[in-house]
Amino acid sequence: MKLIIREYLSLLKESKELDRLLPDLLLMMGIVPISHAQVGVRQYGVDVAAVGEYKDEGNTLFLFTIKQGDLGRSDWDVNEQSIRQSLDEIKDVYLKSHILPEHLVLKKKIVLCTGGNLKQEIQQNWKGYISKNTIEGEVEYEFWGGDKLASFIEEFMFNEQILPIEFRSLFRKVLSLLSDPDYDLSDYFNILNSLLFEYDFGDLSK
């Protein structure tokens, strides 16, 4: 299931696709979005901001900068939309002038988010940047790529465990063939028919 979700994520654009999925995922994780990406509005590097608890670290202000696909050298520092420029704007502008008063005391976690991966050619750039700019317990950095997002989506949004075990492999088949225009959805209709009309769920009062 994770492989199918990760493949889907890798195809998402940063605008009007991944930036719309992320707030829903955060909400399911118990992290409440407080601002979303807006076309034509200066974001100062932050596409999505949210507040909540994550990994028992206490209440945290999350600031997400969203990029598309696998991130390499050409994405790091070449124009105003580059990763480094976005991170610098968050650090130099957003943190200094756009934080609500009630969030000033919270730890800030700046997250570079993409449906792809961080290529090896810029991993040292990323490590060097976060090493230089991390303030322990105050401002920290994380990378959420396709693998991590796929795990979160499976756990919090789209868990196949809700299906009876005999339907799970068929359900994976439906997802893997869904983008094929010649696929007739027969497996999907079989699942619906079995669940709605044939399956015995036992004592529903439990």
Descriptors for this entry?
single chain; 206 residues; alpha/beta; Restriction Endonuclease; five-stranded mixed β-sheet; 44% helix; globular
Describe the structure in your own words.
By secondary structure, the protein is α/β, with parallel strands linked by helices. It has helices at residues 2-10, 14-28, 73-76, 83-97, 120-133, 146-156, 168-177, 186-198; strands at 31-35, 48-53, 59-67, 107-114, 139-144. It has two domains: 2-156, Restriction Endonuclease; 160-198, no CATH class. The protein is built from eight helices and five strands, in the order H-H-E-E-E-H-H-E-H-E-H-H-H. It has a five-stranded mixed β-sheet. Strand 2 (48-53) and strand 3 (59-67) form a beta hairpin. The longest helix is centred in the first third of the chain and has 15 residues, at 14-28. It is globular.
